Amino acid sequence: MFLKELSEARGVSSREHEVRDLIREYITPHVDEVFNDSLGNLYGVKGKDKPGPKVMLAAHMDEVGLMITTIEKNGLLRFQPVGGIDPRVLVSKPVYIGKDKVVGVIGAKAIHLQRPEERTQVLGFDDLYIDIGAVDDDSAKKLVKPGDVATFATSFGEMGDLVVGKAFDDRAGCTALVELTKLEFNCPVYFVFTVQEEVGLRGAGPAAYRVGPDVCLVLEGTTASDVAGTDEEGYSTTVGAGPAVSVMDRSVIAHPKVVGRLFRLAEEHGVPIQNKRTITGGTDAGAISLSREGVPTAPIAVPCRYIHSPVTVMSKSDLEHMIKLVELFVHDIADKGVDFE
Amino acid sequence: MKELLKKLTQACGPSGSEQCIREIIKSELPNYETRTDALGNLIVEKKGPKSKIMFSAHMDEIGIIVTHIDKEGFLRFDFIGGVNPFYLPGERVQFQNGTLGVIGVEKLDKIADLQKSNLYIDIGVESKEEAMKLVKIGDTACFTSPFIDLGNRLVSKAMDNRVACALLIKLMQELPETDNHIVAVFTVQEEVGLRGAKTAAYGIDPDYGLAIDVTATGDTPKAMTMDVSLGKGAAIKVKDNSLLAHPYVKDKLVELAEANNIPYQMEVLEFGGTDAGAIHLNREGVPSGVISVPTRYVHSRSEMVDVRDLDAALALAKAFAKADLK
Asked: Is the Cβ pair B68, A248 closer than 8 Å?
């Protein structure tokens, strides 16, 4: 699996090319056709002319990150978030900026120099800056331009079944989708790697319009809060308990028969599965389900702790079980067709 | 009309779980072939050579969805659509399988601290195992409240938008002679973002869109300023947050109301949206408008409408259905 490579690849929304190039290389040997569209969505197609329902499997390539907005006279860089980032996770983090991978650190006043009341304040985006070691704006401008984007400089690591890295939302889904291209199915399958999910599900709508699928699963990394400080009713999902299926979130009410089939298949084949137990957040399913005359769609996701931060933690077995379940689902669609009315 | 409205409002159909409502509507329209699309919209059609008009009434209502079941069998939940948590303590809910429950609230120092995370549902069981025989994570429920007939004024939960479902059923049952191509769509998932209307409009590709929905009023003690009152006729929408009504459609509705002596009032709504918001942005754009039914206490379990406004709204919908449109 290419989880490490895909996690470490950089792809802030609208700058997904590094991720896309890797995925294109990985899937080309396994699909009949590979192409991308004008927004940057990448498509792998298998069994286009096979009978049976057209299945779309989607995962988004982009990750949250930072965009440089201003270069100060002293050579420090001001920035704004791209996608949902909690400013509390940013202080003292190293980042890589732009296509030349310029190294920077997100600075803040050292604890020795802070007044007591400053120590209790959360620093917002307007209080933070990136230090790239430039002495003034002229030298900074040789390395970075406003509009360049930064990603967290996080290396992938393993802790037994759990792994730590950045951007498992949604490189977990991308990794699963790459693995699934290696399998054979008796129906047409469109593997779609979308752009700009984190800024409003923007790539997925046009992709679904192009494909015109009969049914779709969206493979994701989702929130898990099974940690200290959260009451059980707020866990959302539990790491290691299998892929999580959303019945409803802010973007979609998953098609009940798609959800029902996933749970039935999980039970029949002994694959662990869990409900996502909050309705926060949105996924590409929101845009895809409303494409053209409507597409029965459900999100299925690997639970990720500390999501949208530099250090996301997830379980390899959850990822493997997600791949298994999606495989079973596509075979079931090929065998039994869709019955979603 | 009252009997039909009672049957429709008392049925349970939160967004995404509209099947009961769909079945009632089908049973009321036995003379039509109906179809249900991928999202669950129910589509009823009378073909004709002239303008294709999409009428829409959403079937769904606000409700709740179960997110957690604790050891003692209490359910935690989140909202479906615009639910006001301050209405909820002591309310009763009904699940799709008929299971009933009441909403309790944790001990709070002051009522202003109330949030949905302080609320739970008690379904009268003593353990998680017992609860899970009745309810699963992800199950949805609606609020319950009886239908009351106060003469001209009628009160129930889910007047938003079963009142429009009733009007659209009546329109199709009593459809006047017309060469227009009439498509009545009973849509899903309006309360969570006008979702059903979007895909239905794409499939139908209408020349005109006309949503029927409820609207707020400004005729109660210290109400917000709004020039819509119960009993003063059908409301013709000028704007809300989802739509600026197309001038041609809006003016045509006014013209038809004037010509047919149908009482009407102009509606300028400062918030909210209807299916017309999704329909008018379909494909290359669809001139769209809304006939609204003035409703007090919207999104409470005691939504109040006036039968005279229903009569006016139905008359106006019929007039539009047979209108000669450019």
From this structure: no
